Amino acid sequence: MFRICLCLSVVINSVLSQEAEDPVSYTCTDGYEFEPQRQVCKDIDECAILPDACKGGMQCTNHYGGYLCLPPSAQIIVNNGEESQEQAAEHVNSPPVPPRHRVYQNVVRNMHCSPGFVPDEQNFCRDLNECEVSNPCQHQCYNTMGSFLCICEPGYELASNMVSCHDIDECSLSSYTCQYQCVNQPGRYVCTCPEGYRGTRMCQDINECETGHECADDQMCWNYHSGYRCYPRNPCHEPYVRTGENRCSCHSPTLCHGLPTSIVYKYMSILSDRTVPSDIFQIQATTFYANAINTFRIKSGNEGRKFFMRRTNNVSAMLVLTRPLTGPREHIVDLEMVTHNVMNYRSSSLLRLTIIVGPYSF
Length: 362
Fold this sequence. Notes:
mainly beta
């Protein structure tokens, strides 16, 4: 009886190529053919497809990548190159087989596959899942056929080594990311607002006069952009007396000779560096006299010629901002209305406007 140990070294080379519009294709070595369903190279059984593969009464025995012609009495042993204890004992107790009749076919499980593939128990080259084997990516790993892809978490981007992730500085990408200040953080960014404001990307002024202030009882709270101020509820000084909210009047012709008959106090706030020209405040007469003519002018507070008074009709005028105002700053402008009648009677009233310019353009 012939005892034949089949020991064969098998090499499969699969070449993966993918064109822009062509499907994936494999090239197998001689003795193998590609099986598209399983995406592997499988052995060709030449004994089944070749008629009269062996001559002279020899037996055709298929093996990986080819076939053998052996005597019918040959005993075939297929292993991985190692023998069990039972097989070793059997070989010791069995009569020796002449070397010329012994054929070895060594099936090596450690076969050669293309990068990204490993042999399985059937000696097929199967895709290697690199994400389970070595965890090569710093963040997320996605296995692909024969390779893998690294994906970074939001707020990170892939480094040049294609496996590491580094933080994206969103604040450097655009100056419009945040209205006030952008603070970069690992994987994210936050927008901050200055004191007196709140919000995320956009900053909104906090009305401290509603949320809480420290003005006294005899003071009124005036909110402006980024803060608030306290002004006296009674701004009148002799010879003027309070006759209404923010209104002071003088009823003594002797004491008020050459002075406005009334002074009205008004407050307003504007943004820093406001575009110009811009209409910012309208003054209007509250008392109308027949055949009276009213004129308007800026009496004081316009040293830098930042304002202009435009008369709109006989009883009103518009204060125009002609130059940008940069804050924080306070401007006090006196607007005067002079009234003339047919009896040559002249009187005047004053509107003292306090303009608070905020520190920011929002």
